[in-house]
Amino acid sequence: MIIAGILTKYREQIIDEWIDRLLGVSPRYSRRSRDELYITVAAAYDASCAVLIDNDFSKIDCHIHWISQIRLRGGFSLSEVQHAYELYRTTLFPVFVKELKGDDLLHTIEKLNGCLFYTITKFSDFFQSLHEKQIRNHAESLEQEVAERTKELAESESKYRVLVEEINDGYFVNQNGKIVFANQAFCDLHGYTLQEIIGKPYTDLLAPTYLHAVKRLYEQRVTGEDARDLYMYYRRHKNGGHFPTENKVKRILYQGKEAVAGICRDITERMETERRVRESERLAHIGKLTTSLAHEIRNPLSSVKMNSQIILKNTEFNGNDKRRMEIIFDETSRLERILDEMLNFAKPIRINLDPISIHGIIDSCFEIVDVKMKEKGIRVKKRYGRDMPDILLDHDRIEQAVINVILNSVEALQAGGEITIITKHDAKDKKGIIQIEILDNGPGISPDDLPYVFDPFFSNKKKGTGLGLSNVKKIMEAHGGTARTEARKPRGTRVVLTMPARNTV
Q1: pLDDT of 411-429, one tens digit each?
Q2: 17 contacts 86 by C-beta, under 8 angstroms
Q3: Other C-beta atoms within 10 Å of 232: how many?
Q4: What is the β-pairing status of strands 257-266 and 170-175?
């Protein structure tokens, strides 16, 4: 198998890089010797390989039981070890991207994500069960020491709360339909303070479309009926937003009464990853179809164009025959340009990075389209951000993206229209985000069309292919950025291109 060869070839490299990253996860990991980490990391790697190559989960199950006890004795929090497992994806993903293509890459990434989801979920459950067992054993020993029972029980509860507070996922207890316990992560997921969340009906935290289904699951669970322990729904945030969420729940005794406890996890990123995988599969299919179609059409089209040129050299035309031949030649040339766009769309984006000035690229774009803009008397306003760093970009690709957006505005604007371009450097962290905004005061895009403007072959133009903005999106995503379109008020369109400035020089 290809994947087996890759995992064998890069084993030592990935393990070394995993260890390097692991040393920076937390002070507890940094205090571990490299030799010790090599033993645990190599075992995790080999167990994960068994899943990816042979679909054998037995080794990863053994590893989870072994490492859970080691890390629990070492005082590690659940979130620290979860983070350590996630580093496997971080180190392995670039290798897969380098070695695999197309369906092989997508299939392998799906297996990798499935392996990690299984590993982290099972580890979390087992780690928590070990901790709960510790607490139960401790409580049983307290019964033999009546004089210290109250003090030691409080200490045990405190330790448990520390564990719950340190996990990245939300933890809650629902008793009689109300939230009676929650950690800070659960509060953050819903936008409330701890004081606001305690006592709140759990139904207030559900998006209306999922209210009936989740209520049904809760009622089945508290009445002893069979109900799924793991389910997905959309939670309702305090600000009114709805976000994809996953709950894993079970019945417990809380303060002597029956209740439902659960782990609440935001799965926005996971769903976005799944969406991108589906979109990649769809685009790959479109790309294959487009390439095949373009090659079938190009040869006869070239023949038509060549013969049109020959006929046009004939000076003996009757009536409008010459004009008709010129139209045939021009339309043939236009079809060739459309074919070129289709082939460019079908090809994967490859970028060559160099230190580039964003403002320099924008200026060169306006120089290229200057003639078209002057023909319509379009005004340009530039509001460049200060202290804009040079970053590593593919000059030609970014220029192509910006020109596509500008040309869309030029075509949409009436004579005397206006285009405004704004650049920003949002440096919330050390490097931040570079943002380019291109605004026009044209007729704008209808609300019904806005969600589809980046879809391949979507266009309202009479002579458009619908690939311009699709290529813009591909180019920005190849740079790790985004592209989005918004309607302006009272009229016009706003296109926002963003890219990370992590490659600043």
Answers
A1: 888 888 899 999 988 776 5
A2: no
A3: 14
A4: antiparallel
